[in-house]
Amino acid sequence: xxxxxxAATSSQAYKLKNTLHSDQILVGDYLxxxxxxxxxxxxxxxxxxxxxxxxxxxxxxxxDKNIDTIYPLRVEEMENLMNAKQLFTEYNIEIRATxxxx
Length: 102
Description:
The chain has 102 residues and is α/β, with parallel strands linked by helices. It contains 5 helices and 5 strands, in the order βαβαβαβααβ. It has a 5-stranded parallel β-sheet with strand order 3-2-1-4-5, sandwiched between helices.
């Protein structure tokens, strides 16, 4: 199972990744990412949190990529996911808050 850290265009995402000390970490963002990172599998494209289907798209992504933990670093992502926390819990996906949302 994998851990997903959002806001891959921020340094905070990589600082958090380094503190988790795991090989099973994906970073992703809905903002534009370099093609090299996406093609190498180091980063993934995430749904836009402003879309009404964001929660369902994130759930589908987590199920497709075997993600069981999400660290949403942007405030809008955190709000959307926390509002749907029960849904994610039903699929054994944990949403973890950090102190430093972007």
